[in-house]
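Entry, Tuesday afternoon. Goal for today is a structural model of the target with zinc ion bound, before we commit to ordering more compound. Inputs were pasted exactly as handed over by J.K., no edits. I checked the ligand SMILES twice against the vendor sheet because last time a stereocentre got dropped in transcription.
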Amino acid sequence: MRTWKWMFTAALLVTVSAAAQQPAESQPLSAAANGPLPTDSQPLSVGTVPQIAGATPSPNSAQTAEAPAAQPQASQSQAQSQAQPATAPAPTPSALPQPTTMDQVVDRFIEREHGLMKALSNRTPVVETYLQNLSADPQLGPVPSDDHYFLGRMDMGESVDRKDYLKEQDKGMQTRLMGGFNKLFKVQYQPMGFSWMVYADRTDFDRSHYEFHYIRREFLGDVRCLVFDVTPKKGSGKGRFLGRVWVEDQEYNIVRLNGTYAPAPRNSYFFHMDSWRLNLIPGYWVPAYIYSEEGDFSAGVKNKTAFKAQTRIWGYDLKKGDKDDELTQIRVDSVKDETPTQQDASPLQAERQWQQQAEDNVIERLTRAGLLAPEGDVDHILQTVVNNLEVTNNIDLPRPVRTRVLLTAPLETFSVGNTIVISRGLIDVLPDEASLAAVLSHELAHIVLGHNLGSKYAFNDRMLFSDDSTYANLGFKHIPEEEIAADKKAVDLLANSPYAQKLDNVGLFLKALQTRAPQLNALLTTHLGNPLAEGGTVNRLPALATKGPALDNNKLDQVAALPLGGRVKINPWDDKAEMVKTAPVAITSARDKMPFEVTPFYPRLARWGASTTPSAPPATAATNAPSGTK
Ligand SMILES: [Zn+2]
């Protein structure tokens, strides 16, 4: 007999008040525990440090610091080497001797940077930038005043280019970026936009254009790094990198860049950026996250330009989407014939098989376009919540409901056949399991009510389109009557479910969404399903919108919605989604809540192989203490 259980709560929502904030240990540590350092602020050419790697015991990674780079990590475990992606670039043989001077370290990371550009030159990852313009609120500090969304594929070859997924790209934003926020400034906006900072300098990252100054050692997550300031030499040209790089101390790859470009052309300026890389394949750290922020809210500032933006890169392992390639990849055999032998399909069975074929086609196509995560751990949580709704409502469908994670930020859900799809951004901002159940119940209601969409996609010719035209070729929007019926049915399903006593939290979430909806049009613009809000007004689950207490920013224990990025993280190489593990951080003021907002990135860096081990399930103590808000 099927039963229900708390799932989201046990798995992750214990950190409800903390999700997007980073645990203290992921902050960069100062190099206090490290040994003597070369004189600060002196050019490297004069400072030397014998035995950089492993010379001084480090607080928590003495072992890795001792490991010579020539010994591949994979040798520690067969399982790890099997985990190596089949299409990853071959790791460079690191038989080179360990550098013994900082000069040699600089030479090495310059060489590794060029090696990375070469290794990624045939990749076309997905790039997503979500930007919030900010205005000052006396109580909440800088809050979003409007927002912009960009999604495309980036060609990492010689000519860096972006192909955009969204048909109506935000032309206004581009014009403004190029034409100037006001008369004083215009912003340098290159074809790569916010993703320029995947590399410090694509063409001239070398000693003849830059000075490198060793600063100190520092841990980023589990990885010990050498920190260098990088400044362009006089007369080396406009738009050169100016800032700091963190270089890991085994193979000397750059793992983080922070700074801007200089000098700026007249009447314009460059954004500031913080760019992070992850060690997702042996030997290489691939660009994954870029945070950008501008704005000064102190009294008397004249330049009112203020925004914050997150850029995420994923889908490095996607196939290049040329037409021939796509034709050979179309799967026509994706549906198994499960009817017992010697039986013909009844008309109803045929109809269901047809729908399943459409469903499989769509899921496979979206995955191939880099928009859907492969089936994984997050789906296990989502499916358990759906199961809770099903068993308590005695729903018995001919095929089990499946779930998948849409990799993008805009808040949306849709269903195709028996598969419910929910976006990463929406999972991020939901405060608790009941709210997750609420958004899933709307899609489950469509399935239960037989609002099948998308059967036309059972024809395989309809899957033949280029990746960047996905949104133009697929769509799963219901007519208004079906939306109203699904909302009504969803409320019935929730009333019978284990979440019935927690619907106040859903009401709070919908209220929080309503307070920000007029400013967050881009975040609420869906690309495949029906929107949660239209024209600045929330329209999903209206019967629950009045539930719960009034929204009160001053109540620090009332967390109605979370910032983006706090729950789901995507592996930029293989697109797998997993839950973020964060420790609770106390909210100390209303400004800490940041509902639906963009925050800086602080990924916990780990070396390849070290982070792929599945983590233990969370402490069971949490199961008995479902999180909630008041
Ligand atoms: Zn709907």
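Residues 347-368 form the longest helix (22 residues).
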